[in-house]
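Below is just one:
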Amino acid sequence: MGIKAALPKYEIYFYNTVLCLALLWATSWIFEVSNTNVNRKTFQSNIKPGWHYFGRKMDTADFEWVMWFSTFRAHILFALSGHILFAKLCTMLAPQVTDDTQREYRSLVFLVYGVLAVWTSMGWTYVTLMLSHCILLYSISLVKIRWLCFLTGLCTLASFKCEPCVSWQAGFVEGDFELRHILFYGGCGFTIMRCMSFALENCEKKDGNYNILELLKYNFYLPFFYFGPIMTFDQFYAQVNRCHFSRKEREMWNISLHGLMNLGIIIVVDVLFHFMYILTIPTDLKLLKHLSDWAIVGLAYMNLVYDWVKAAVMFGAISTVARLDYLDPPKPPKCITLLYVFSETHFDRGINDWLCKYVYNPLGGSHCNVVEELIATLCTYGVTILWLGPCKVVLIWALFNCFGLNFELWTAKFFSVEPFTSFETALSEAGSRRLRAVFNAFNYWCVVLFNLLALNSLDFVKMVAKRLLLKGFPVTTVMVLFVTYCLVQVIKERERRQALIDDPDPLPPAPAPDSSGKKKSK
């Protein structure tokens, strides 16, 4: 089946209608549960006063969201605004210089402000700790042995995940700033990943070595320092050292529009948290047992969508600042609403690009060999486990996602032989698309359940699975899979339209003129 296989318009309209009705139905259940249980004793730790004049309380179960857009909003805005203003002020006060000198000057300004900001928030001993890790990995990179750079980087990363190393290094943080523990782990983790990228790129450099100053500019770029996203060193170096810094047509308009869209999404999520407690409800297992199947399924779906929205907004705010600095940061993650295969599942495109560039693609090759793919996925998720921090939930999440990624390849190999290929060839393109969508619907819920492990408790995931497969069988199971089938078809339609834009079909040749010079009519 080609990606451009089309379905009748009325069929697509039907799928969209089913999706909208199902979403409204599930939302109504969650809204009712939120309203009737707002004063529940188990909710008191997460449901806090919100809109006083409207009598609404707010779901504050997600610490990251509250930190970014409520409690420490002023600190984060101050730091990012200071980065923009400091760079602009230094540029205005600097004399007119050549392009080469200007590039060097801009990157040095970013380095100075980044070091000063980290020093102010975390203390000079923390800056010294980060510098020591940079110097260590820079020294190893001079040997230009990839496996040694990788091993050193992974051991260094492990030192921030295992006791007593992590406690000893945490002692380098000074002051009583409430965010210091969050900033400590964020800054350390991203620093090691950036240093590993630098070391691996230095191994590939054939003529000489990169200067350690380039590593410091790369690592201490403030918008990316604590929270990411990660840009690989080769991308950052090429963009910072480009020949000319100029805006494309309407680029500032697009940046402003992107910032306003992020602001609008923040407001929408804030409204959502006042009416639907999608993060707190899954923590109360006693309440979950009394909810309908549609409420449980809706909670599972909305939790994943929310996590994508959170990642998109947080990275989007940072990316807006980076784009003002003439950088092209990693794009937001792909929404779970548009995913039905494990190979495209990620919530951090920067980490995903890093893993693909340095682990997954080098080991997996063309990703057609079963053994090579298994080795590549095991190593990729092994690094991911170390990055996230080894624990029971992370290990289970990695195991299931690793299996899902390999199972897709095994299934593709299995159905690529006779008699399956002949059977699909006998179908029309539309029929083949419908058949594949049936299998994709099952795969979609595997993606949902496996990735819920990283966001919620194992007990909640077990309950969702039981409602779908056991307690709700066959009515709930069939209905949910049918709605999911409709969703997959809508996704495929979106992919089809994008494919037509990226690679339009060739126009038919013009009719040849007859002997009188007139074009022949069809």
Remarks:
- DSSP finds 21 helices and two strands in the chain.
- The chain has a mean pLDDT of 86.
- Residues 293-324 form the longest helix (32 residues).
- The chain has two domains: 9-55+260-303+331-501, 69-240.
